[in-house]
């Protein structure tokens, strides 16, 4: 299953990954906004979210007054993000695109290129990630920022496989949905299956399963690839976002 197919399948229910998606939209935007303003100063910044998904980061940053563009490989996710923006009265320029081609956006260069929530490790080799980082740098104005958030795979125990990663049981109209992942490690990569088990009163329970593959790349290796792509001042930030954040100056 391709990355596009993975996110297309779960676009309608992806918000259930969060216990409270609306609160998470606001909280994540406030943290990312603070990180940006600490480095670029106050004001309205031009942000390109190159892995926008259903809009979790994009919506919140636009609501804070930034000029935001969003792109994703998944047409289903982009369509959902666009609907969410319209419902909130937000003007966001959405498109379907690969992050490795982000420098081709007609509104480039940007102040910030953003790739949050462990999107970069969908690229399965160092060469693919380097290609993306080089595109990030070209999509930035001089002195702009690349901001990514990723899992800290150095903390993951790969000796046990498969592994179940529970997210929780969410209330949905008429019932509940249990959300969890199963990881199967294969050396430096792993296959991830995302489960949404829906139980609605009076109906037979149904299960939505979508699968993708990830590269369990270390943050140290990502930092080196950012340097190779021409970035400077690569900084790791821990303890503020729900994942480690890497910030690099273009």
Task: Name the CATH architecture of the largest domain.
Answer: 3-Layer(aba) Sandwich
CATH class of the largest domain: Alpha Beta
Spans of at least 5 consecutive residues whose pLDDT stays below 50 are none
Per the principal axes of the C-alpha atoms, what is the gross shape?
globular
* CATH level 4 superfamily of the largest domain: Vaccinia Virus protein VP39
Q: For the report, how would you describe the main beta sheet?
A: 7 strands, mixed
Helix content: 25-40%
Radius of gyration: 18 Å
Question: How many helices does DSSP assign?
Answer: 6
Q: Would you count the extended β strands for me? A: 11
Strand order of the largest sheet: 3-2-1-4-5-11-10
**Structural class estimated from helices and strands:** alpha/beta
Please tell me about this protein's structure:
The structure is a single chain. By secondary structure, the chain is α/β, with parallel strands linked by helices. The protein has 2 domains: 3-152 and 218-249, Vaccinia Virus protein VP39 (Rossmann fold), CATH 3.40.50.150; 155-215, Single Sheet (S-adenosyl-L-methionine-dependent methyltransferases), CATH 2.20.130. The protein has 6 helices and 11 strands. The chain has helices at residues 3-10, 21-40, 56-63, 75-87, 126-138, 219-228; strands at residues 46-49, 67-72, 93-96, 110-115, 140-149, 163-172, 175-186, 189-200, 206-215, 232-237, 245-249. The strands form 2 sheets. It has a 7-stranded mixed sheet, with helices on both faces. The protein has a 4-stranded antiparallel sheet with strand order 6-7-8-9, covered by helices on one side. β7 (175-186) and β8 form a beta hairpin. α2 (21-40) crosses α3 and α5 packs across α6. The longest helix is centred in the first third of the chain and has 20 residues, at 21-40. The radius of gyration is 18 Å and the shape is globular. The model has no long low-confidence stretch (mean pLDDT 97).
């Amino acid at each position: 299953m391709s990355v596009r197919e993975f996110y297309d399948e779960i676009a309608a229910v992806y918000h259930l990954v969060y216990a409270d998606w609306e609160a998470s939209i606001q909280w994540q935007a406030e943290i990312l906004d603070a990180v940006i303003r600490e480095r670029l100063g106050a004001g309205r910044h031009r942000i390109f979210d190159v892995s926008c998904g259903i809009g979790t980061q994009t919506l919140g940053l636009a609501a804070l007054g930034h000029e935001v563009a969003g792109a994703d490989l998944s047409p289903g996710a982009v369509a959902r993000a666009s609907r969410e923006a319209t419902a909130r009265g937000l003007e966001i320029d959405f498109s379907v695109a690969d992050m490795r081609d982000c420098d081709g956006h007609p509104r480039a260069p940007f102040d910030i290129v953003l790739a949050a929530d462990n999107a970069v490790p969908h690229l399965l080799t160092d060469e693919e990630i380097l290609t993306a980082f080089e595109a990030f740098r070209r999509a930035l104005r001089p002195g702009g920022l690349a901001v990514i958030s990723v899992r800290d795979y150095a903390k993951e125990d790969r000796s046990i496989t498969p592994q179940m990663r529970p997210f929780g049981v969410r209330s949905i109209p008429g019932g509940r949905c249990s959300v969890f992942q199963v990881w199967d490690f294969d050396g430096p990569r792993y296959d991830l299956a995302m489960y949404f088990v829906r139980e609605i009163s009076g109906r037979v329970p149904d299960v939505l399963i979508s699968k993708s593959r990830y590269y369990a790349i270390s943050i140290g290796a990502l930092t080196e690839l950012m340097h190779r792509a021409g970035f400077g001042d690569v900084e790791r930030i821990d303890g503020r976002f729900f994942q480690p954040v890497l910030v690099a100056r273009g």
